[in-house]
Amino acid sequence: MANFPFPPKAKAAPAAEAAPAEAAAPAEKAPKQKKSGADRKKPAPAMTSDQVKQIIALVKDHSYSQIAETVGVTKYQVNRVLMATKVQLRENAKGDAAKLAKVEEYIKTYLNRPEDSRPGKGGARGGKVKGALDNVVGDILASIG
After folding, report:
1. What is the spatial distance between Cα 69 and Cα 75, in angstroms, rounded to a whole number?
2. Which pLDDT belongs to residue 40?
3. CA of 63: how far to CAs of 2, 44, 58, 82, 95, in Å?
């Protein structure tokens, strides 16, 4: 097995040997109870067309989290709205090359996130992860070869 540049895992202390056999037995868990309808989280309310328009208007200059906070939805709903909008635009332009080209230009100009907020493209989180991952992958490859 390759010797990766990671520190070895710490071994557990043999405390289990000193403990009596009764204490070593795992405690029985109570069966998990299902939540009743009243205890469950409420589903998100239906979005309005005004919220969708607001999301589309804000996407060019804001992150999904910022848009979600402003509009009053989750960032996952923001993503869903934008992805569904792009799909519907492309489907409606299918068969007409000129119209499809205009739709693609509109999507590129107005419906794409800013470059610095995209994951893995040098944004807040993605760029840091990619940079750190590149270093680790290089170390692993060096230890293998």
Report:
1. 8
2. 62
3. 42, 21, 9, 12, 33
75 contact partners, CB below 8 Å, separation of at least 6: 64, 65, 67, 68
Q: What does the alpha-carbon distance between residue 4 and residue 37 come to, in Å, rounded to a whole number?
A: 50
* Three-state secondary-structure class, residue 103: helix
State the Cα–Cα distance between residues 115 and 121, nearest whole angstrom.
7
Domain boundaries, the chain: 46-113, 115-145
35-67 pLDDT, tens digit each: 666 666 677 678 888 899 999 999 888 888 999
Phi, psi values for residue 112, rounded to 5°: -95, 150
Q: Kindly give the residue spans of alpha helices, DSSP state H, lying in the chain.
A: 15-18, 21-24, 49-58, 64-71, 75-92, 97-106, 126-144
With CA atoms as reference, report the closest residue to 63 among 122, 105, 123.
Answer: 123
Cβ neighbours of residue 65 closer than 8 Å, sequence gap 6 or more: 75
| pTM tops 0.70 | no
* Token output for 49: 């067309």
